[in-house]
Each structure stands twice: as C-alpha cells, then as structure tokens.
Design brief:
- The protein has 186 residues and is an alpha/beta fold.
- 43% of the residues lie in helices and 18% in strands.
- The protein has a six-stranded parallel sheet with strand order 3-2-1-4-5-6, with helices on both faces.
- Strand 1, helix 1 and strand 2 form a beta-alpha-beta unit.
- Helix 1 packs parallel to helix 2 and helix 4 packs across helix 6.
- It is globular.
- 34% of the residues are buried.
C-alpha cells in the first residue's frame, strides 16, 4: 500500500445496521480537519433500509475533504483482496463477540480503528490499531488525524504489526480447533 501523508483510505466491512454503527463512523469523519483527505468505502449488505437512508443523508452533508462510497455486499473470497487496498479498517461497532472482519483486516496487514466494544484491547501499544470509546469523539477524531498523517515508513510499521498480531490470533484459533477435533475423535 502506498501511504502519502495527510491522506488515508479507510474501509468499513460489515452489515449496514445500527449495531455496526456506520452512522458514527460517518458523523465522526464529518468533524475532521480539512488539512487531511479521508476516503471511506463501505462494504456490507443492507440490513435496515431506514438506517441506510439515515447514513445516506449524513453522507450528503460531508465536507469536501471526506468521501464516502457505499459499495454493497461482497463475496467472502474477495475480502482479503479488498482489504489490501486500504490503509485502515474503520468499524465503530456497538457490540462484537469476536469480530471476524477485524481479524481479517489485521491478517491483511490493515490496522484497525475500532470501538472498545470488541474483545480486542490495547491495540495502540501493539501498533496495530486502536480500540476507542464510542463516547469520546475527540479521541476518535485525533486517531483519524494521526492515521491520516502517517508517512510510508511509519505506516509500514503499523501494517506489519497488524499482520504479526493477527498471525498470533490465527495460530491460537488453529490450536483451539485442533484440540476440539482431538476431543471429538475420542
């Protein structure tokens, strides 16, 4: 991924529903500083037509330095390729038991900007993303500004850290799956 300072390509990957909280992602981007350029592509099936309409209305009010495009649903086989085109996964979900899209983002070397309503914590100290409070718009905005400001060298460190963090998750999942298969075979 080419990462130019003051520009960032974000991706949202999930259902377009209230629980996935796309509206807050859009609303927060609206408050960002115009010295940065933000693009957010939204991949996911529509779950609630009224909620989608509310999101579209908010998109229509965005300033010029923010671009949001609704891309619709996507086949699972294409997700890794899609994620490799973006700098950060942006998903401020209200509740997540695991967060498959989050792990897929990390696995693709795409650091994440997510809420603290997932099992993934202390991401910033690992340089693979942020787990942010939904009630702190200022922190979310500061994080978006930091993400946008990164140069190539610094972004590469975050991207590699995301990949390595995900490798640990995937190895743990494989070990758990292997143990389950072992017990099932007894």
């Amino acid at each position: 991924r080419i990462k130019n300072p003051n520009h960032v390509k974000l991706v949202y990957l999930g259902r377009i529903s209230e629980v996935k909280n796309l509206l807050q992602c859009i609303s927060t981007l609206k408050l960002t500083n115009s010295q940065y350029q933000f693009s957010l592509d939204v991949y996911g099936p529509e779950e609630n037509p009224e909620y989608l309409e509310t999101c579209k209305n908010e998109i229509a009010t965005l300033p010029e330095h923010v671009s949001v495009q609704l891309k619709g649903g996507v086949e699972n086989a294409l997700i890794n390729g899609i994620l490799s085109e973006y700098h950060f996964l942006f998903l401020l979900t209200l509740n997540e038991n695991f967060g498959h899209a989050i792990v897929e983002g990390l696995t693709a070397g795409c650091p994440v900007i997510i809420s603290d309503k997932t099992p993934w914590r202390n991401l910033e100290e690992k340089k693979c993303g942020w787990d942010l409070s939904l009630s702190d718009d200022n922190k979310i905005i500061d994080t978006l500004h930091f993400a946008a400001s990164l140069n190539q060298e610094t972004y590469d460190i975050w991207s590699e850290s995301a990949y390595h963090f995900a490798s640990g998750i995937n190895e743990n999942k494989k070990a758990i799956d292997d143990h389950i298969r072992m017990f099932e075979s007894l």
